[in-house]
Structure formats: structure tokens, C-alpha cells
Amino acid sequence: MLQKYKQRAVKIIFDGYIFVVMIITQFPIKLPFKIDITKVQYNLVPFYFLIKRIEALREASRAGYNIKEYLLPTFEIIFETFGYNIILFLPFGFLLPIIRKDCSLKKVTYYSFSFSLCIEVLQLISMIVTNNSGRCFDIDDIIANTIGGIMGFYFCIISKRLLMLIFKGVDL
């Protein structure tokens, strides 16, 4: 009986998490609705931004600039590009195996990728319909979100094992 309530509580937390992710990634939606595909922004080349940033650092170094002052801003931008998306999907990968007992790494990877792709497609549709270029369809976001889901899965597995060691013989 208690296990049923725990499972329901985790499901409610997961649903709340999905709701928050949708709010973070989809809003605000700016009006008026006017279809214009010329303002759609997208990146279909994996790690394009990262590669361009590294190339810019190399060029600055060749030109004689001290690149040390550019390194911290570069790392900050890289963290903003990848880190936030990884963090955003950590709970997804962590909670999914708790909700679905048959959830493997392969399934978490698939669900993380699929959910991330849905988010990016919704952002693309929103850009087209609302003529708003505030968001970008970005393959790097899909990659980072999927990595976040995978990391969350491993955190869940590690947490379960640690809890089993700590509470050996106690019914959780």
C-alpha cells in the first residue's frame, strides 16, 4: 500500500517536472500569429557553435592576442549552450526509471531524445506561426538534453545502489 503511494508521488513529481520543462522551453509565445519562415533560426550541424568558438580563439592567438582573457567567456558560453540543457534533463533521466520499472539505458536515451526533439519541433512551429525569432531549433540542444537524460539515469542507478547499501534489510 505504501509502495503504491510512493509510486504515485513520484509520478506526480515527474508530471510536474514535464510541465515546468514545457514552460521553460516554450514560453513566452509572442503574438501576433503570422506565418513567416524567413525568420526561422536553426542549427543542424552538431557542435557548430563550439567549433566556431574554438576557431575564433585560434585566430585570435595567431593574430597575437592574449587569449587568456577570452577563455573564461568562452567556457561560460559553452556552459550556457550545453550545461543548462544537460541540467534541464537530469531529472527526466533520474525519474523515468523510478516510474517505469522496465526502463533501461536504451529506453531512457530514446525517451530523452524523443522528448527533446518534440520540444525543438514545438519551438520551430512557434517561430514559424508567431513570427518570433527568440528561439532556435538547435541539434546541440537535442544532444545535450539526451546526455542529461543519460546522466540522470546513471545518477538514479547509483542512488538506488547507495540507498540499498545504506538501508540494507530495510524495506524502502
From TrEMBL:
Keyword flag Transmembrane: yes
Keywords of the record: Membrane, Transmembrane, Transmembrane helix
Transmembrane listed as a keyword: yes
Listed transmembrane segments: 12-29, 77-96, 108-130, 142-163
Cited Pfam families: VanZ
InterPro entries recorded: Teicoplanin_resist-assoc (IPR053150), VanZ-like (IPR006976)
Ranges of residues in domain VanZ-like: 17-158
PANTHER family, per the entry: INTEGRAL MEMBRANE PROTEIN, MEMBRANE PROTEIN-RELATED
Listed name of the protein: VanZ family protein
Organism this protein belongs to: Caldicellulosiruptor obsidiansis (strain ATCC BAA-2073 / JCM 16842 / OB47)
